[in-house]
Amino acid sequence: MPITVRNLVPDFLEFWDQARAEDEQGQLTLWAEYVERHPEVIDDFRRSGREPDPRAALGLYPKALELIRANAEAADGWVHEAAELVAPVLDARHLELQAVVMVGLGTANGWVSDFGGRPTLFLAVERIPDATAARILAAHEFAHAVQLPLPEVPWTDIGPLGQWIYSEGFATALTAELLPEYGLAEHLWFGDGYDDWLVDCLQVLPAAESAILSDLESEDDEVVGRYLTRNQGSPFPDRVGYLVGTRLVQDLRRTHDWPELARWSTEQAQQEVRRALSRPRC
User: Fold this and answer.
1) Closest by CA position to 258, among listed 86, 76, 83
2) Helix 161-178 to helix 240-252 angle, to the nearest 10 degrees?
3) Which pTM value belongs to this model?
4) Angle formed by the axes of helices 24-37 and 55-86, to 10°?
5) CB within 8 A of 15, min separation 6: which ones?
């Protein structure tokens, strides 16, 4: 499968070699120049309409420098390993994809968005603590990068809650099947230490499913975030929507294969999520 990986970590290290001895204003000036050369660095903010503030990240970088250097050497391999794992299962070897490996602002570890008119996989190495996290995360995000363009009408990175419940469930269920040596909680959080979180989610799962069903058509970022990010003021555990979507897609796998599920339109995915969440609960 043709895949282009742009590794911006060496450019970050060059920036930091100049910026590390500067005061805050000097660092901010150099950072602005760095981002102007590499707008990919703030894509996580661009896609959500947020304004980036690099000051917290400038304080993080010295502590993360050893991890950044280590991950810079390994990151290209993570992407290619994920491609070899995911693409054949989805019958997607024909796709031409692009990936960006970089140092971000410490706010997200990986994502996929439309950059330059193409679905692009982003990995932020300062947020990837070890090889286990890298392996799970790269496969998960690669699944997104493949699933978005495969349908007859490609998915965009904008849509209602139901679309994202399906999408996150698809990527998590796929990687859980392809990498069975890791537990479900590890796939849902890209690392260990979340077994108690999984128990908490299962205890409120019926209520969470009902709430998601009620909000299924919402495109409001706050509503979507209530189920898919670290929420505030919600009665449910953070990211409970990942578990809801994963269980839903795992159930769909009983009657559908991966290439078919990867090619569903947004309308069909939304319909299937609604149907699954509307079933009577025992």
Assistant:
1) 86
2) 70
3) 0.94
4) 30
5) 30, 31, 34
